Amino acid sequence: MSLPVLTAVTGARWESDLVSALERSSLGLDVVRRCVDLPDLLATAQSGQARAVLLSADLRRLDREAVARLIAGGVAVVGVVSPGDTEGEERLHRIGIAKVVPADAPADVLAGAVAESVEIAHAHGRAPEPDFAVSNPWGAMPSLPPMQDVGVTPETGTGTGQLLAVWGPAGAPGRTTVALTLATELSTFGVPTLLADADVYGGVVAQALGLLDEAPGLAAACRSANSGSLDLAGLARHARQVLPRLRVLTGIQRADRWPELRASALEQVWDLARQLAAATVVDCGFCLEQDEEISFDTAAPRRNGATLTTIERATTVIAVGAADPIGLQRLIRGLEELREAVPGVAVRVVVNSVRKGPVGGDAEGQIRDALRRYAGVDAVVCVPYDRFSFDTAIAQGRSLAEVAPKSPARLPLRNFAADLMGITLPRQRRRKKA
Ligand SMILES: Nc1ncnc2c1ncn2[C@@H]1O[C@H](COP(=O)(O)OP(=O)(O)OP(=O)(O)O)[C@@H](O)[C@H]1O
Ligand SMILES: [Mg+2]
């Protein structure tokens, strides 16, 4: 049986040679269409005529989003570059094409690359991801002493940083507050931390940190990722440094800019973030609805794609719920949705704004009990309500650690941050009773 293949190498001098080389090979490849441009390629791929495409680095408008669409449509993508064009090869890798071959490779090598990519895509359910070999710009940062060194040796430059996705159901349970506080606490431990605002319904991290007039760094990083020009140093440039160990990728402040946070671009941003920082804390949007189920065009950008991609790639999802009957009910339902959307992901639960009023009696005990019974969650981080401290923090555009270090809301989040990174904190000194 022959393997139907597309080519999209317009503008290249060697197109005809390439096509005949493919058809000459002994691997049974059949070039079913020579696409004239990217729209032609995408339309043909969508019609299901082919299993693979061989495309050139100079194909106009080729970007990460287009590659992701091809791969999602079940078409394995192989790049082809002029002999010696290492720049073109790197760009193809960066936009998500793992296999790149020189145009003058022997027929069987070209055909072999196509057949192998189809096989790998079939085995993985998608095409293989490229490796990113880049250096770590943390090393170039001024190494100011951490506020409190608790003996953590962060792993950086290895792509093994934690990706902590802070998520939670609708109703403003405190996702941003938890993300901000966790990130700042981690930085005080000396952990190189990146805080990213990926809320597609309008992010406020920049405002909360007093970064006025800030162009959204995360959107800029996504743009670079989409065009294939994002590398580790570029990501570091988009991430503004706000504390000695804390960088921030600010988000889109207007909800209508959500298409700038494309899932396909975020995938690369998170991969690089895990090389850049020992911990990346992401403030996510609330919705997990898979928009393609309600949309006819399955290739259209998905608003919640950013949230879904983030929680799929997360090493831990931190689910935040509000400590009142409605908030808890939403959290319990949300945890169910979360497990359906990403069955294998590690989830930790934070219940925020714990106070007596809405729950009554032993609020913390009742909350723990409800989550154990209805969501099967044993470990819950309870964060007390502390309006004054958080208001002060917002008013000053600073963190809780800076404006209200003794806030009762800080300690559980600080302990939780340490726990997430496997840091052992010095024991708290108990106050002597008079
Ligand atoms: N533990 C707490 N005690 C008192 N106020 C809190 C606490 N946690 C959060 N808040 C306040 O609640 C409000 C909403 O919090 P936040 O913005 O973090 O929620 P969110 O889930 O990110 O909401 P959104 O849906 O707008 O993204 C803010 O004014 C914040 O200061
Ligand atoms: Mg928020």
Give a quick precis of the structure.
With 434 residues, the chain is of the alpha/beta class. Helix content is 40%, strand content 17%. The protein folds into two domains: 3-124, Response regulator (Rossmann fold); 152-420, P-loop containing nucleotide triphosphate hydrolases (Rossmann fold).
Considering the chains and any ligands shown, give keywords for the structure:
434 residues, alpha/beta, Rossmann fold, five-stranded parallel β-sheet, 17 helices
Beta percentage is: 15-25%
Q: CATH superfamily of the largest domain, please?
A: P-loop containing nucleotide triphosphate hydrolases
Tally of distinct domains: 2
Q: What is the first-to-last residue Cα distance?
A: 86 Å
Main sheet: strand order: 8-9-7-10-6-11-12-13
